[in-house]
Each structure stands twice: as structure tokens, then as C-alpha cells.
Amino acid sequence: MDDIHLADQSPFQGPTDHPKPSASLRQKNYQGAGQAWLIDISESFTLLSSIVRVIHPKLYAMGIETIKKMGMAGSPQEVLQIWYSIFNGVQIISNRETPVHRDHNTRWEWYDLLTTVGPYQEAILELPGVGLKFSYESGTVLGISGRLLRHGVSEADGERMCVAYFMRENVQNRMETKYAGWNNWDSYRK
Prior knowledge:
Layout: E1 2-5, H1 27-55, H2 57-72, H3 77-80, E2 89-94, E3 98-101, E4 112-117, E5 120-121, E6 124-127, E7 132-135, E8 141-144, E9 151-153, E10 157-158, E11 161-166, H4 169-174
């Protein structure tokens, strides 16, 4: 499992410290695999951010505002220039079962996007709290409140990679971004 964060707020940082990129995007790593990965995934970042603009406009606006504030706060410009996501965190889970869990570093009202790719068969995504199980085929994109709904994914036969996109609450706090509330019909009225 790999975490890639545009901004990572360690519990050991003080109240005036600015979030820093995860190790994979810091200068020595960025010039190699970090930068190449961001370039390779830029189209997916853009598409998935566009999906959030449709399914949760307030969350999309919050993400855009946070990225802008990070740029003004001195976050590494070379990373921000090719970070095309409204999310400030990405986690890659490769070839493993994900036990049923909740995500505790986000808020109830926010959606995570879970995507899955690879040549595999028969993965199942389970939401036991609501009694649902879904076929989790390659190419699936799921918007879910990861803090609200317990969720997990079975083992798969083949090569499977899940890429989970999320917002970290502590980054939003540090950037003093107004929180996106629950999505509702008023979000679509102008």
C-alpha cells in the first residue's frame, strides 16, 4: 500500500507549520518516479475531479480552493503545476484484500473515489452496514463516504490495483478552507 499526498500534515508538526508533500513527491523522489507518475495519471486526475464536480459540487469547490491556498502558502510549485486533482491524497492498494473498515482522516460529508484497474476476476466490494455487495470489476469508479460507510474488498483472481482518492481533514483545517457540507439538491441550483 502506498500513500501519495499533495499535502501531508503530520501530528508532529506545529500549528503554524505548512503541510508538506508526501515522501514520494519531495524533491529527491519527485524528479524520478513521483513526477513521472503525476504526468502519467494527469488525465485520470482530471476525469475523476470532473466526476466529483457532478456528484458533489461543494466538495469540488472546496478542493479547488484548498489547492489555490496551498499555492499561496508556499507548497512546492513544481508539484502543484502537475497535480490535476481536487483531492489532496491518493492511496494505491495492489493485489490484496482490503478488510472492512471506515476512513477516519476525512469527514462524514465528503466522498472518496475508489477506482480499480487490472486483469483480474471476481472481486467483490462489500458495504456490510447497508447489506450490499457489488461486483468490483476493472474500470469501476465508486464515490463513497468512506467515513460513514464501512467498506471492504475481497481478494481477486489476477492482478488488481485500487486507487483511492480522498480529502484529509487536517489539510483542510490547515488551509482554513470552508468545509463542504452534505450534498443536496440545492447544490445544483444557481
